[in-house]
Write a structure and sequence with these properties.
This protein is an alpha/beta fold and 285 residues long. Helices cover 31% and strands 32% of the residues. It contains nine helices and 17 strands.
Protein backbone atom coordinates (compact mmCIF):
# COMPACT_ATOMS: atom_id res chain seq x y z
CA UNK A 1 0.00 0.00 0.00
CA UNK A 2 1.01 3.65 -0.31
CA UNK A 3 2.67 5.11 2.77
CA UNK A 4 5.12 7.88 3.46
CA UNK A 5 7.79 5.40 2.37
CA UNK A 6 6.09 4.51 -0.94
CA UNK A 7 4.96 1.11 -2.19
CA UNK A 8 6.36 -1.83 -0.28
CA UNK A 9 8.47 -4.48 -2.00
CA UNK A 10 7.30 -7.65 -0.25
CA UNK A 11 9.53 -10.06 -2.17
CA UNK A 12 12.67 -9.92 -4.28
CA UNK A 13 13.96 -12.88 -6.27
CA UNK A 14 17.00 -12.95 -8.52
CA UNK A 15 16.15 -15.02 -11.59
CA UNK A 16 19.61 -14.62 -13.13
CA UNK A 17 22.59 -12.33 -12.80
CA UNK A 18 20.76 -9.64 -14.75
CA UNK A 19 17.09 -10.46 -14.19
CA UNK A 20 15.21 -9.93 -10.94
CA UNK A 21 11.65 -10.11 -9.69
CA UNK A 22 9.90 -7.57 -7.49
CA UNK A 23 6.57 -8.32 -5.85
CA UNK A 24 5.04 -5.02 -4.79
CA UNK A 25 2.04 -4.37 -2.55
CA UNK A 26 -0.67 -2.24 -4.14
CA UNK A 27 -4.14 -3.70 -3.43
CA UNK A 28 -6.09 -1.27 -5.62
CA UNK A 29 -3.83 -1.84 -8.61
CA UNK A 30 -3.87 -5.62 -8.12
CA UNK A 31 -7.68 -5.60 -8.18
CA UNK A 32 -7.86 -3.51 -11.35
CA UNK A 33 -5.00 -4.96 -13.40
CA UNK A 34 -5.49 -7.40 -16.26
CA UNK A 35 -3.02 -9.44 -18.38
CA UNK A 36 -1.22 -7.32 -20.96
CA UNK A 37 -1.26 -4.06 -18.99
CA UNK A 38 1.71 -2.20 -17.58
CA UNK A 39 2.74 0.25 -14.87
CA UNK A 40 5.14 3.16 -14.61
CA UNK A 41 7.49 3.19 -11.64
CA UNK A 42 10.00 5.49 -9.99
CA UNK A 43 12.44 3.91 -7.57
CA UNK A 44 13.13 7.18 -5.73
CA UNK A 45 12.09 10.85 -5.81
CA UNK A 46 14.81 11.86 -8.30
CA UNK A 47 14.51 8.68 -10.33
CA UNK A 48 13.55 8.07 -13.93
CA UNK A 49 10.00 7.05 -14.85
CA UNK A 50 10.13 3.65 -16.54
CA UNK A 51 7.34 1.42 -17.92
CA UNK A 52 7.24 -2.20 -16.77
CA UNK A 53 4.75 -4.81 -17.93
CA UNK A 54 2.81 -6.60 -15.20
CA UNK A 55 4.18 -10.15 -15.07
CA UNK A 56 1.71 -11.50 -12.52
CA UNK A 57 -0.73 -10.40 -9.85
CA UNK A 58 -2.27 -11.74 -6.68
CA UNK A 59 -5.57 -10.06 -5.88
CA UNK A 60 -5.96 -11.83 -2.54
CA UNK A 61 -2.53 -10.68 -1.38
CA UNK A 62 -2.92 -7.28 -3.03
CA UNK A 63 0.36 -7.52 -4.94
CA UNK A 64 1.66 -7.27 -8.48
CA UNK A 65 4.82 -8.87 -9.83
CA UNK A 66 7.36 -7.08 -11.99
CA UNK A 67 10.27 -8.78 -13.72
CA UNK A 68 13.12 -6.40 -14.52
CA UNK A 69 16.30 -6.76 -16.54
CA UNK A 70 19.28 -4.70 -15.40
CA UNK A 71 20.45 -3.13 -18.66
CA UNK A 72 20.59 0.63 -18.05
CA UNK A 73 21.31 3.05 -15.24
CA UNK A 74 17.85 2.96 -13.64
CA UNK A 75 17.31 -0.79 -13.78
CA UNK A 76 20.81 -1.48 -12.46
CA UNK A 77 20.27 1.01 -9.68
CA UNK A 78 17.02 -0.75 -8.78
CA UNK A 79 18.80 -4.10 -8.84
CA UNK A 80 21.39 -2.79 -6.41
CA UNK A 81 19.06 -0.99 -4.03
CA UNK A 82 15.66 -2.69 -3.93
CA UNK A 83 15.16 -5.56 -1.51
CA UNK A 84 12.20 -7.06 0.36
CA UNK A 85 11.14 -4.51 2.93
CA UNK A 86 12.18 -1.61 0.71
CA UNK A 87 9.82 0.40 -1.46
CA UNK A 88 9.19 2.05 -4.80
CA UNK A 89 8.73 5.79 -4.58
CA UNK A 90 5.95 5.81 -7.21
CA UNK A 91 3.84 3.17 -8.91
CA UNK A 92 1.14 4.18 -11.40
CA UNK A 93 -1.26 1.91 -13.24
CA UNK A 94 -2.69 -0.22 -14.61
CA UNK A 95 -2.01 1.41 -17.96
CA UNK A 96 -2.78 0.39 -21.50
CA UNK A 97 -5.47 -1.94 -22.79
CA UNK A 98 -5.65 -5.50 -21.45
CA UNK A 99 -4.97 -8.41 -23.78
CA UNK A 100 -8.06 -9.43 -25.73
CA UNK A 101 -8.67 -13.00 -24.63
CA UNK A 102 -11.61 -15.28 -25.30
CA UNK A 103 -12.16 -15.87 -29.02
CA UNK A 104 -9.21 -18.00 -30.08
CA UNK A 105 -9.59 -21.76 -29.72
CA UNK A 106 -5.93 -22.49 -30.36
CA UNK A 107 -3.21 -19.93 -29.69
CA UNK A 108 0.59 -19.76 -29.75
CA UNK A 109 2.10 -17.61 -26.99
CA UNK A 110 5.70 -16.54 -27.67
CA UNK A 111 8.06 -14.87 -25.21
CA UNK A 112 11.65 -13.88 -25.87
CA UNK A 113 14.16 -12.68 -23.30
CA UNK A 114 12.48 -10.43 -20.75
CA UNK A 115 9.26 -10.81 -22.76
CA UNK A 116 8.93 -14.26 -21.21
CA UNK A 117 7.50 -12.74 -18.03
CA UNK A 118 4.49 -10.81 -19.38
CA UNK A 119 3.47 -13.67 -21.66
CA UNK A 120 2.79 -15.89 -18.65
CA UNK A 121 -0.43 -14.20 -17.43
CA UNK A 122 -1.63 -14.00 -21.04
CA UNK A 123 -1.07 -17.73 -21.54
CA UNK A 124 -2.89 -18.41 -18.28
CA UNK A 125 -5.82 -16.21 -19.31
CA UNK A 126 -6.17 -18.01 -22.65
CA UNK A 127 -6.04 -21.36 -20.87
CA UNK A 128 -8.75 -20.23 -18.43
CA UNK A 129 -10.88 -19.15 -21.40
CA UNK A 130 -10.78 -22.71 -22.75
CA UNK A 131 -8.20 -22.27 -25.50
CA UNK A 132 -5.55 -24.82 -26.45
CA UNK A 133 -2.32 -23.02 -25.53
CA UNK A 134 1.04 -23.65 -27.21
CA UNK A 135 3.88 -21.89 -25.41
CA UNK A 136 7.21 -21.04 -27.02
CA UNK A 137 9.89 -19.14 -25.15
CA UNK A 138 13.38 -18.19 -26.23
CA UNK A 139 16.54 -17.23 -24.38
CA UNK A 140 20.25 -16.95 -25.03
CA UNK A 141 21.05 -19.85 -22.67
CA UNK A 142 19.61 -22.01 -19.90
CA UNK A 143 20.78 -19.65 -17.14
CA UNK A 144 18.41 -16.95 -18.38
CA UNK A 145 15.31 -19.18 -18.56
CA UNK A 146 12.81 -18.76 -15.73
CA UNK A 147 9.25 -19.80 -14.82
CA UNK A 148 9.41 -23.01 -16.84
CA UNK A 149 7.19 -24.75 -14.28
CA UNK A 150 4.62 -21.98 -14.43
CA UNK A 151 4.38 -22.15 -18.20
CA UNK A 152 4.08 -25.92 -18.27
CA UNK A 153 1.17 -25.65 -15.83
CA UNK A 154 -0.87 -23.44 -18.20
CA UNK A 155 0.29 -24.68 -21.63
CA UNK A 156 -0.92 -27.76 -23.47
CA UNK A 157 2.38 -27.80 -25.35
CA UNK A 158 5.56 -26.00 -24.35
CA UNK A 159 8.88 -25.49 -26.14
CA UNK A 160 12.06 -23.75 -25.01
CA UNK A 161 14.47 -22.42 -27.63
CA UNK A 162 18.00 -21.32 -26.79
CA UNK A 163 20.64 -19.64 -28.89
CA UNK A 164 23.39 -22.01 -27.72
CA UNK A 165 21.31 -25.17 -27.40
CA UNK A 166 21.99 -25.45 -23.66
CA UNK A 167 18.28 -25.97 -23.01
CA UNK A 168 15.42 -27.10 -25.23
CA UNK A 169 16.02 -26.89 -28.96
CA UNK A 170 18.89 -24.91 -30.44
CA UNK A 171 17.60 -21.97 -32.43
CA UNK A 172 15.40 -18.92 -32.36
CA UNK A 173 11.76 -18.89 -31.27
CA UNK A 174 10.80 -18.92 -34.94
CA UNK A 175 12.02 -22.51 -35.09
CA UNK A 176 9.72 -23.44 -32.22
CA UNK A 177 6.84 -21.63 -33.90
CA UNK A 178 7.48 -23.39 -37.21
CA UNK A 179 7.40 -26.76 -35.50
CA UNK A 180 4.15 -25.86 -33.74
CA UNK A 181 2.52 -24.71 -36.98
CA UNK A 182 3.59 -27.93 -38.70
CA UNK A 183 1.78 -29.89 -35.99
CA UNK A 184 -1.26 -27.61 -35.95
CA UNK A 185 -2.84 -26.18 -39.10
CA UNK A 186 -5.70 -24.63 -37.14
CA UNK A 187 -3.91 -22.00 -35.01
CA UNK A 188 -6.19 -18.97 -34.62
CA UNK A 189 -3.80 -16.48 -33.09
CA UNK A 190 -0.19 -15.85 -32.11
CA UNK A 191 0.84 -13.45 -29.35
CA UNK A 192 4.50 -12.40 -29.19
CA UNK A 193 6.36 -10.30 -26.64
CA UNK A 194 10.09 -9.71 -26.76
CA UNK A 195 12.75 -7.77 -28.65
CA UNK A 196 11.37 -5.92 -31.71
CA UNK A 197 13.46 -8.00 -34.12
CA UNK A 198 11.96 -11.15 -32.64
CA UNK A 199 8.40 -9.85 -32.84
CA UNK A 200 8.94 -8.78 -36.45
CA UNK A 201 10.26 -12.27 -37.30
CA UNK A 202 7.18 -13.81 -35.70
CA UNK A 203 4.88 -11.54 -37.71
CA UNK A 204 6.64 -12.36 -40.97
CA UNK A 205 6.35 -16.05 -40.22
CA UNK A 206 2.59 -15.90 -39.68
CA UNK A 207 1.82 -13.36 -42.42
CA UNK A 208 1.66 -15.80 -45.36
CA UNK A 209 -0.46 -18.15 -43.25
CA UNK A 210 -2.99 -15.43 -42.42
CA UNK A 211 -2.72 -16.06 -38.68
CA UNK A 212 -3.76 -13.16 -36.46
CA UNK A 213 -0.59 -11.90 -34.79
CA UNK A 214 -0.49 -9.60 -31.78
CA UNK A 215 2.69 -7.94 -30.51
CA UNK A 216 3.24 -5.87 -27.37
CA UNK A 217 5.35 -2.75 -27.89
CA UNK A 218 7.49 -1.00 -25.31
CA UNK A 219 8.91 2.12 -27.00
CA UNK A 220 10.40 5.09 -25.18
CA UNK A 221 7.75 6.35 -22.79
CA UNK A 222 7.64 9.23 -20.30
CA UNK A 223 4.22 10.11 -18.91
CA UNK A 224 2.12 7.13 -20.00
CA UNK A 225 -0.96 9.25 -20.75
CA UNK A 226 -0.43 10.11 -24.43
CA UNK A 227 0.68 13.67 -23.68
CA UNK A 228 4.42 13.47 -24.37
CA UNK A 229 4.21 11.61 -27.68
CA UNK A 230 7.43 9.74 -26.96
CA UNK A 231 5.85 6.32 -27.44
CA UNK A 232 4.29 6.95 -30.83
CA UNK A 233 4.45 4.07 -33.26
CA UNK A 234 3.38 3.63 -36.86
CA UNK A 235 0.68 1.04 -37.34
CA UNK A 236 -0.48 0.73 -40.92
CA UNK A 237 -1.14 4.25 -42.20
CA UNK A 238 -1.79 5.77 -38.77
CA UNK A 239 0.25 6.93 -35.80
CA UNK A 240 -0.61 5.34 -32.46
CA UNK A 241 0.57 5.90 -28.90
CA UNK A 242 1.65 2.69 -27.20
CA UNK A 243 0.68 3.96 -23.76
CA UNK A 244 -3.01 4.66 -24.48
CA UNK A 245 -3.70 2.83 -27.76
CA UNK A 246 -1.63 -0.25 -26.89
CA UNK A 247 0.58 -1.76 -25.80
CA UNK A 248 -0.71 -4.53 -28.08
CA UNK A 249 -1.01 -4.02 -31.83
CA UNK A 250 -1.48 -6.00 -35.03
CA UNK A 251 2.00 -7.35 -35.73
CA UNK A 252 1.36 -7.38 -39.46
CA UNK A 253 0.71 -3.63 -39.42
CA UNK A 254 3.51 -2.37 -37.14
CA UNK A 255 6.34 -0.44 -38.81
CA UNK A 256 9.22 -2.17 -37.05
CA UNK A 257 11.88 -0.17 -38.89
CA UNK A 258 10.48 3.04 -37.44
CA UNK A 259 10.19 1.45 -33.99
CA UNK A 260 13.81 0.29 -34.01
CA UNK A 261 15.00 3.72 -35.15
CA UNK A 262 13.14 5.41 -32.29
CA UNK A 263 14.49 2.93 -29.75
CA UNK A 264 18.05 3.75 -30.86
CA UNK A 265 17.52 7.48 -30.72
CA UNK A 266 18.73 8.05 -27.16
CA UNK A 267 21.35 5.30 -26.95
CA UNK A 268 24.28 7.76 -26.57
CA UNK A 269 22.53 9.54 -23.69
CA UNK A 270 21.59 6.22 -22.08
CA UNK A 271 25.19 5.03 -22.31
CA UNK A 272 26.47 8.29 -20.84
CA UNK A 273 24.01 8.10 -17.93
CA UNK A 274 25.05 4.53 -17.13
CA UNK A 275 28.76 5.33 -17.28
CA UNK A 276 28.30 8.41 -15.06
CA UNK A 277 26.35 6.38 -12.51
CA UNK A 278 28.94 3.60 -12.51
CA UNK A 279 31.75 6.12 -12.01
CA UNK A 280 29.93 7.81 -9.14
CA UNK A 281 29.23 4.43 -7.54
CA UNK A 282 32.89 3.46 -7.75
CA UNK A 283 33.88 6.79 -6.18
CA UNK A 284 31.46 6.22 -3.28
CA UNK A 285 32.73 2.72 -2.54
Amino acid sequence: MLSSEGFEVVRREDLSEVTYLLEVRHPELARAARPGQFVIVMSHAEGERIPLTIADLDRSAGTITLVVQAVGKTTREMQRDLRAGGSLYALVGPMGHPSHVGEAKKVVIVGGGLGIAPTYPIARAFKESGAYVIGVIGSRNKDLVFWEDRFRAVCDEFTICSDDGSVGIKGLVTLGIQQALERHSDVDELVAIGPPVMMRACAELTRPRGIKTVVSLNPIMVDGTGMCGGCRVKVGTTTKFACVDGPEFDGHQVDFDDLLMRLRRFQPEEKEALERWQTQGAAVT
